[in-house]
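Weekly puzzle thread! Below is a chain. First person to post its structure in token form gets bragging rights.
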Amino acid sequence: MVMAGALRSAPGRGSRLASGVSRARARVREDVDAAMERDPAAESRLETVLTSPGLHAIWSYRVAHTMWERGDKWRLPARLVAHVTRAATGVEIHPAAQIGDRFFIDHGMGVVIGATAEVGDDVMLYHGVTLGGRSLAKIKRHPTLANGVTVGAGARILGPVLIGAGSQIGANAVVVKDVPANSSAVGIPATVRTNAPPSYVDPAIYI
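Winning reply:
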């Protein structure tokens, strides 16, 4: 009877596993598509998969995040995965951070994403970006980036600020206040240009 019950339950477990693998493959394909679209230096999908530290960092993060979500006994291993990933890619993402689909980091080196950061879909970061905190309290202390945000090289977004959908943060900007949707923020401290059309690209992002 026990064996029969085990056999009956096996297809259910197998279906869940197959479904999980299918979702993971689809997400990896989306990641590679996003990298190919956003990186003009990418010459082939194989090259991008093998040599993009941004992709390697996000894939490792997802493994670490899944471990983190399983509970306390998995959190040290999750931090170790993140630690090794930082050494290999130059990208430090805390396993507790929340990151959406089609996330891409160009070049990768020097990116830091804090534990309470929240990142939406279709977000792109250049190298040297910090999504950091301004408090030592165990509260929401890192930024939230809505869908479609682009952050230029060396920018610092600090504290529990909200960067609205479709907005762009210029290179080396320091942002400590909310940025409305479809806006650009440049300078130290950052000043905001609102009502920018979605197709607007701030040249400062690429400096």
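Puzzle host: Confirmed. Bonus trivia for everyone else. The chain has a mean pLDDT of 87.
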